[in-house]
Amino acid sequence: MLGLETIFKQPPKILSMHIEHLSLTNFRNYARLELSLPQAPIVLHGDNAQGKTSLLEAIYYLATSKSPYTTTDKQLIHWRMENDPIPFARITAEFSNKNSPLQRMDVTLQIDKSTGTPRFKKIIKLNNVDKRVMDVVGLLNVVLFVPRDLSLIEGSPSDRRRFMDVTLSQMNRDYVEAIDKYEKVIPQRNALLRRIAEKRSSVAELAYWDAQLTESGAIIIAERQQFLRELESLAQQNHHQLTGNKETLTLNYQPGFLPSFKGTGQLSFDLLGLDLHREMTAEAIKPQFAEQLEKEQRDSIERGVTLSGPHRDELRMMINGRDCGLYGSRGQARTTVMALKLAEFEWMHHHLDEYPILLLDEVVAELDSKRRAFLLERLSDNVQMLVTTTELDIFTEEFVQQSRLLNVIEGQITG
Known about the structure:
Blueprint: H1 4-9, E1 18-27, E2 30-36, E3 42-45, H2 52-64, E4 88-97, E5 100-112, E6 119-126, E7 129-131, H3 133-136, E8 142-145, H4 151-154, H5 157-171, H6 173-197, H7 206-243, E9 249-254, H8 282-295, H9 297-303, E10 314-319, E11 322-323, H10 324-327, H11 330-352, E12 357-361, H12 369-378, E13 385-389, H13 397-402, E14 404-409, E15 412-414
């Protein structure tokens, strides 16, 4: 990870990721779509429920292997396929980035009903070679900005953990592997805790799962801390500009396990959360995490759940020292979200040495004229950007003239 001094000394980059062609088959309300995408801003306009958001969802899914709108991939398959013996959806993209002039990624989602019990399967190919999810996450990088991003302020802790996970997973292979392992170990360990409580397993069996949990959990905490440290500085700059330097945004990371910064006699965590200005390594966090699991072992067995760890992390946004989620106005929440999302975009740019793809889903219409102008002025002509809207007149004439306009009607695109 780059230090802050490196981030702010780097000159601007003009390279940008670019999806050159997108193909959808039985994806959401698209039975079939073949679409070439220019480097210029792309404005998808049309009435609601026509397929604008689904197009952005397909690109986001290719980049992250997750949908921002559903928890089950089965819902991505076109409803007309439900009576087919093997319903499937396919997303294919030809894209380029600074490391490759052209690559092809295919993701096929299918439900095999031939065995009696339907089985869901995800098949990923890169240049016609079979791959795992963790092999392809990060080849395409995207930042998605939607009105529901207000959940970063007003939603549950899981919304804010998801924000950290999606961003870091696109950029950091170690993080992808750590979060994958951690999410598999937690339910296994919890099941073992319940068996121990029922006298069906031995406490000694916890040692194996604790070792897995502390190794992966320490990486997650360390990487989240470093990410938030860098993000905070970028977001503060955006927030100062949006508020005329009247408000200061800070990020308060509250890990589900609180290690101490040893060696100075001081804690790196106060009563509220993590001091982002002191960096802790995974190696320093791991033994303390193991000690915490052992300390709370009896309570964990009684409750049947793992009580500490990054699955319980929280992130709070503070404005002038006050929690925006508890005390901020709706206008302050919108400003904070914009500052965060633009910081995410800038953070990716500096680490990648090229711009990620920017997806704006109906977000421009939600902004007042000041925030709308701030957003559009910050975006480079070199960014591949897809914007959805039901109203073209919210954009300036200059922006419309430099954009490609695509009309979306019932899963068909013209323009």
